[in-house]
Structures are given as structure tokens and as C-alpha cells.
């Protein structure tokens, strides 16, 4: 059985449209468009493009915030320092690991929750939806503290509730080792952001035309086959949006690490490294270079996703 | 709250009226706010102090203050600053110079370590407020059972032996945080060494003493203590230490004096048996070398006046009121933060609340400040990276690794 999706509707240009010239009406529409979108566009430039360009510029200097007089141009030296430092590669590895683990688990869990939300009885649907969304409404720092307290050796309940699990005892120091720290960080992230993914996937599920499901059912497709051949292919754009957003988000993980381990035992992520150089060490140049590298990585991930999924994002809007 | 107070600062009257001063305070049990209102009242309308609270962790307090001061924030009039950051602030020109007459008055009868902690480049740049030091806290019953004479100075080695023999733990700050640097510095100093042997204006010329015998001995102590430090030694800070000590998991602990009011408060609230603090004993910080007095950690808070403040004179006037003997005694007895003025320790009220006062005073006289350098945050961060976790310290090599890391970080050749 092949995948079942609706045939693309052909867009045909109206015959009467004159080529090449712009009518008064479309010109005034265009002007109106600029007047409506222009302010937002400039605000976006001011709050995103300007800081990005400033970071790129600062990253070429050796510049300490408390010693502005000794600011010196050093070219790409900051990038060289970073890329030859083992700490950078270690934090890249930690970040990739957290990203892959959390996004994978969240996608599977989120899909399940989206199905539950979509199929839940009409009477309990709002309750289910609210219950699932609560973790997402919690501030990340608060959720990080909650998880830290839960696993803390003095204040936590985990050590006394889960002693039946192998490797867990009353004396398990979760934040004393790399592996266990990463595990708790991942758990906190998954708990916190699975609702986000499931919400996006729920929107995707709603877009799958019921006619296709019925047609497949008539053809004798099992539930499993319908899921893989009808539902998922038809919500590819939604999955891609969910994955892309969450991956970019996960790659910038900071709060949980900051609260739970403060970077101890090799748990630093790339964002944490940028924070420590810029805010703690006040080395604006070096910190900006870390941020620029983080930005480039994030752009590459986004490009890889869009190319890999071969989905036009605008098609998700049904244009 | 910060926003509200800075708005209020903007609204202050410039022409001879009441100046509104903003005092950035570290979180405490309300003592600084009370002192602020007392001083405002006593000033007869010369100034009114409003407090704005900084983050809990001293490293985060520094981050916030430095960003604001780098942007020349004029709302910063008075700041409660952790002493190790004073050189950095002074060197960056963030502090208004202390008037000579004020300097003279505020150093009268003040313990030496607090004066040292307020001095940079042989000049007083901060006003000593309260001076903290760590004591060795112990359970009298356990020390007795082990036959340890706590009237005599004890060494870390003895404590480790007793802990092993009595199957108990020594609580110390093994967490990767500023507290670890505090511990390491006290150990190196107690062994007769210094983390920074020689300071230099150029960070690349700073001479480190981490490969000395003293530093190696300190590393050995850290390692051996970590073996009897309890289950979560590498994540334990001061608060976790007290919990372990209160619950009886640890029978020895190096910690600040807040331990005492905390235990009494818990007894009052009914969360701790009265017999627990009754068993508390205290003495000077343990020695590293048997024949050399220990050099306990020095901490506390000193006051600085922001260089961009619109009311520098009023601010210095206010700091003199804040650090008055009366206010220091009040702060000591109510918030558990020891005074920097020696005379406060003879106050009968203080002695009644804090039976430890004489030991605290003695400890302050021999306390050693952390390395004074403009690059303190980097030095401390690198030390924490090299010496954490204490369980995996290799006394022969960790010092060398830490030296290399600090030098590379200061030269801008390595990330931290």
C-alpha cells in the first residue's frame, strides 16, 4: 500500500491577468501591506538583527567589560580559541545528546498525547487538554527547581520512593555524576516540553482529512497501517514544525543545567558556555564568539530539517 | 522591587532636601532593611535609605552589579559586596573613593581581616560592615567517645581518623561553587601557602602557588575529607552541611556561625530536638599542619559606594551609620552575622545570644582572605573546575592542572 495524501491542487493563473505591469490597485495594496507590516518588520530588525550583528562584531575583539580601554581587535582568534578547546567539543556533545534524547522521547510521547487529546470523549476533552498542557505553562526555572528538589538527597522523595529500582538507594547522589545529572536534566526537559510538541501535533492531526481515513478503512487497512500510511504522511508539515521548533529549543538548553548542576561534572551545554564567558567572565569578545557559533549551529540545524523533510513550510498553512 | 526603588531614586530631591539612597543588599533575615530604616530616621532628613535585594548567590550578585555599573547606573548608591570582588570593582573604577576622614573612623577598632578585605592597592576602598569566619562545629558526644580533646587545636588528619573510627562524616563544602574555593583557600593558607603568590597588573604575570608543598598538602586534606564526607559530598554546600549535621549524619563540620541561630530557630519551631544544639561544640578551624595555627576562611560583607551615584556624600554618611557599633551588635544578635568591630564582641547581649562570640573574634584575627585579584572570578571558577569533585583530586597533579588552567584562562587562551 502506498501513502495516501490528497492530490495537490493546481494553481492556474487567471487568463485575464496582464503580464508584467502593476495595476494601481495592486500598488496601493502593496503600499498598505508595507504600512501594516512595516513597523513590525523594523521592530524585528531592531531586536534581532541588530544584536546578532553586534555579537558578530564584538566576537572579533578581545574585550573585557570591566576594562574597556584595553579592547583590541584580534580577528578570528576568539573562534580559534573556542574551536581548539576540548570544553567546547564536550559541551557540543552534551548538548547534542540532550537534544537527541529529549526530542525523540518527546516526539513519541507527544504523538501519543495528541492522539489522546484528539480522541478523548468530548465531555472530558477540555480537562485532558488542560492537564496535559500544565507543565508547559510552568516557568522553566521553576520546573528545574522542582525536579532538583525531587531528586535532592536531603529534600527529595525520589530516593525513598524508588529504592526498588536497581541502582537507586537512599544515598544516591543524582547530581554527583555526569550520567545521573544528564538523566534528571533530560527528564525535566521532557516533562516540561512534551505538551508543546503534542499541541503542534494535535493541530496536524486535525488537518488529516477524514475522507482519507474512511477510504483506507474501506480498503481494509488496519489501525496501524492507517497510522503509518495515512495519518503520519498527511501531517508531515506539522511534525516537521514540531521537530524543528523543539530541536532548536532543546539545542539552547540552559535553565535546567544552570539550576541543577551549574555546569558541574561536565554537564555544560553550549548556551551555558556562552553565559559563563559573557556574564561570569565578562569576556564579551569570547562570549560573543561562542554565541555566534551557537547561532550558526542552530541555523544549520534548521536548514538540515527543511532540506531533509522536503516540506515547504508555507504548505502547512494550506496555501 | 529594583525597578520601583530606582524610580524612587530618580525622584529624589537634589537641592538640599532629603536624598533617597538605594542600598543593594544581599538577602538576609531582614536585618539590613531594619538598619536602613533606623539610619534614615537618625539622619534627620539628610537621607532616606531604601533597600533593593540582590540575588542569593554571591557570584550572581556580582554579575548583576557589574552589568549595572558598567552601564553607569546612578541608582546604585550603597552596595553590600562580598569582599573577594572588591578589587575587581575598585580597579574598574566602579567605586567612589572613600573620603579620608571616613576611612579613619570606619577602621577604628576593626578586626584586621576585615580591613584587609576592604583594601585594594594599599587604599581603603570599602567600609568594613560585618566579618564572617568559619568555625569547626562538632558533636560533643562523638568527640568525647573518640577521646578527642577539643580544648586543644585539632588537625584535619585527626578528624578524618575519628570520623573513620566512629563511622561518622565530616561536613564540608564539596559543591562546585564559591564555597569550594573558600575551603581550598583556607587549607592552602593554613599550610603556609597562598593561591596567588605574587600579584601583577598584567594577568599573565600573576604568580600562582598551587604547585607548592602547602597546596599539595591542602589537596591531600580535601581528598581524604571527601572520603568521609558523606553520601552527597560533591554536591553539598553550606545548607546541606547543616542539614547533615543537624540530622546526625555528620558529627564534624566547618561552617559559618549561622549554624547556631538556625538550630535554635528550628528548636523553637519544633522541627529539631532541643538536645541536638545542646550537643553542639565549637572551636577554631582545624589545622593542616600540627604546629601551625590554622587560617580560617574570611567572609562577610563590606559596603561600597557606587562611583556613578548622585549622592556620594550622603551615601558615605549613611554607611557610617550602618556600620555603627550599635547596628553591628543588632545585626549580629538578630541575623547571626558577626561584627567587624572588635568591641561588639564584649557586648553582653551578643555574648548571651552567641556563646561562640569569643571564638569567632579569635578566628577573625587569624582568618585569611581569598586571593585578592582583579580576576578573582576567573581564578575561582578555574579552581572550582580543577578541584571538583574533591573525590578525584590527585594531590600530585591537580595543583599543576589548576595552575595551567588559570594561566590559560587569564591569557584568554581557554574557555572556562
Fold topology:
The complex is a heterodimer of chains A (319) and B (416).
Chain A: H1 24-58, E1 61-64, E2 67-73, H2 77-83, H3 86-119, H4 125-137, H5 140-151, H6 158-161, H7 178-207, H8 210-218, H9 223-234, H10 236-251, H11 255-260, H12 270-280, H13 284-309
Antiparallel strand pairs in A: 1-2
Chain B: H1 2-10, E1 19-25, H2 31-42, E2 47-53, H3 58-70, E3 78-81, H4 86-91, H5 100-106, H6 112-117, E4 119-120, E5 123-124, E6 127-133, E7 135-139, H7 140-145, H8 156-166, E8 169-171, H9 178-190, E9 196-198, E10 207-208, H10 213-227, H11 238-247, E11 250-255, H12 259-269, H13 275-278, E12 280-283, E13 298-305, H14 312-322, H15 325-335, H16 348-353, H17 357-366, H18 376-387, H19 398-410
Parallel strand pairs in B: 1-2, 1-3, 8-11
Antiparallel strand pairs in B: 3-13, 4-5, 6-13, 7-11, 7-12, 9-10
Helix pairs in contact in B: 9-10, 9-18, 18-19
What does this structure look like?
The complex is a heterodimer of chains A (319) and B (416). Helix content of chain A is 67%, strand content 3%. Chain A has helices at 24-58, 77-83, 86-119, 125-137, 140-151, 158-161, 178-207, 210-218, 223-234, 236-251, 255-260, 270-280, 284-309, and strands at 61-64, 67-73. Chain A has a two-stranded antiparallel ribbon. In chain A, helix 3 packs antiparallel against helix 4. Chain A is flat and about 75 Å long. In chain A, 33% of the residues are buried. Chain B has 416 residues and is of the alpha/beta class. Chain B has two domains: 2-125 and 299-366, D-Maltodextrin-Binding Protein, domain 2 (3-Layer(aba) Sandwich), CATH 3.40.190.10; 134-296 and 372-410, Periplasmic binding protein-like II (D-Maltodextrin-Binding Protein, domain 2, 3-Layer(aba) Sandwich). Chain B is 45% helix and 14% strand. A five-stranded mixed beta sheet of chain B has the order 2-1-3-13-6. Chain B has a four-stranded mixed beta sheet with strand order 8-11-7-12, with helices on both faces. In chain B, helix 9 (178-190) packs across helix 10 and helix 18 runs antiparallel to helix 19 (398-410). At the A-B interface, helix 12 of A face helix 3, helix 11 and helix 18 of B.
